[in-house]
Amino acid sequence: MPPVTLPPAPTIPGARHLHSGKVRDLYELTEGPHAGQLLMVASDRISIFDFVLDTTIPDKGELLTRMSLWWFDQLSAIVPHHVLSTDVPDAVRGRAVVCERLDMYAVECVVRGYLTGSGLLDYRATAPDHSVCGIRLPDGLEDGSRLPEPVFTPATKAELGDHDENVSYEAVEQTVGAERAAELRGLTLSVYARAEEMARERGIILADTKLEFGARPDGATVLGDEVLTPDSSRFWPAAEWHPGRAQPSYDKQIVRNWALSPESGWDRSSGEAPPPLPPEVVERTRQRYVEAYELLTGQRF
Ligand code: ATP
Ligand code: MG
């Protein structure tokens, strides 16, 4: 696995740093009306192939934060969410939210309506049965194929720098109990159904997404983390969808393509991080995130 090195998390007055992921920094608020709750800050960092790049994408943290907030709001009839406030310290205004501290379930709730990525790898590796997370799928599917119906394909959370690992539904039952597992699967599929429908109306295919849920002290299940951003989901332009190849997508595909091209001079097998991104790759990537935000929410950035 590539070693992940992160820049030091910024110091924020009134908050104590707890944890940094590849893209986000998590703090505990130490003063104010929400003392004891969490401050989740989305940076402009970008990661590909589990490497965090040295180059950042301007406004990415704000775009993803806004997109996530918009979706939380759209989904609130299906499941409560963890956001308490967007009134955050000036240093991180626009790209941070105050959220309830939840006891997170140790399962990445992934749902797929289309086959690609690790789902496709599992599908191929389990030939001739063709299954993903123990769910049997039809023969003859290709990269980007639409599944007969969306499937819940949970994964375990990996440490920084590691890949998440797909697991069976039974493994989720063992981790969180049968009742919780059924609840998580039901909520995940309901969120997908709603979001997929909304995206489709806007000419975007929601191929798959990953949700994280947690429990309030009273046991109620709440949607946490970020939701339906290009960092946690695959969004494809519907007009360009052609199963049988990798699909164009509204995310860091421009960066991935550049890194793998001869132009970058990067050797993926070297174990070294990709080189800094050229300015035009940064700008095109930023534009892609803006486009996704504007298309989905109907709002100008
Ligand atoms: P990466 O996503 O880079 O693989 P990561 O998941 O460790 O790594 P982040 O996603 O940046 O890093 O960190 C967010 C962390 O906060 C995750 O561990 C997530 O489960 C947790 N989290 C999200 N929402 C809440 C919440 N409301 N209460 C407690 N923890 C939360
Ligand atoms: Mg995460």
UniProtKB/TrEMBL annotation:
Domain SAICAR synthetase/ADE2 N-terminal per the UniProt entry, residue ranges: 18-269
Presence of keyword DNA-binding: no
Gene Ontology molecular function: ATP binding; phosphoribosylaminoimidazolesuccinocarboxamide synthase activity
Gene Ontology BP terms: 'de novo' IMP biosynthetic process
Pfam annotation, one family: SAICAR_synt
Keyword terms, alphabetized: ATP-binding, Ligase, Nucleotide-binding, Purine biosynthesis
PROSITE patterns for this protein: SAICAR_SYNTHETASE_2
Keyword Ribonucleoprotein assigned: no
One GO CC term on file: cytoplasm
Pathway note: Purine metabolism; IMP biosynthesis via de novo pathway; 5-amino-1-(5-phospho-D-ribosyl)imidazole-4-carboxamide from 5-amino-1-(5-phospho-D-ribosyl)imidazole-4-carboxylate: step 1/2
Reaction it catalyzes: 5-amino-1-(5-phospho-D-ribosyl)imidazole-4-carboxylate + L-aspartate + ATP = (2S)-2-[5-amino-1-(5-phospho-beta-D-ribosyl)imidazole-4-carboxamido]succinate + ADP + phosphate + 2 H(+)
E.C. no: 6.3.2.6
Domain of life of the source: Bacteria
UniProt xrefs under PANTHER family: PHOSPHORIBOSYLAMINOIMIDAZOLE-SUCCINOCARBOXAMIDE SYNTHASE
Family: Belongs to the SAICAR synthetase family.
NCBIfam families hit by this protein: PRK13961.1, purC
Entry protein name: Phosphoribosylaminoimidazole-succinocarboxamide synthase
